[in-house]
Description:
Residues 41-123 form the DUF305 domain. It comes from Trinickia violacea. The protein folds into two domains: 1-39, no CATH class; 40-130. Helices cover 77% and strands 0% of the residues. It has four helices and no strands. Helix 2 runs antiparallel to helix 3 (71-96) and helix 3 packs antiparallel against helix 4 (100-127). 8% of the residues are buried.
Amino acid sequence: xxxxxxxxxxxxxxxxxxxxxxxxxxxxxxxxxxxxxxxxxxxxxxxxxxxxxxxxxxxxxxxxxxxxxxxxxxxxxxxxxxxxxxxxxxxxxxxxxxxxxxxxxxxxxxxxxxxxxxxxxxxxxxxxxx
Length: 130
């Protein structure tokens, strides 16, 4: 019975926290990135937030595979998340950008990087991945 009470207490705390967070957003508090919580993001804020997320993910993923000393495997293992980061950033441009030339560049980047990722994954499959 103690376990059921603990689960109920944790659930109640979670609900209270969610309610408090909602109230805090309504009061205009900011989240840790400094963005206004509970407000509608402008295109500028939304694209900046999306670029920062893409950068953070790319950096985290590029740092994840340990180096092995095999230059070929290390190159491929670290370039895949690098290329995925380029795709993620290009998709932000396609969502928020307005300049036709830059949007074309972003579309070309998505196509090229997807092809290169596919090549590297095939290479890993035949040469052993990390």
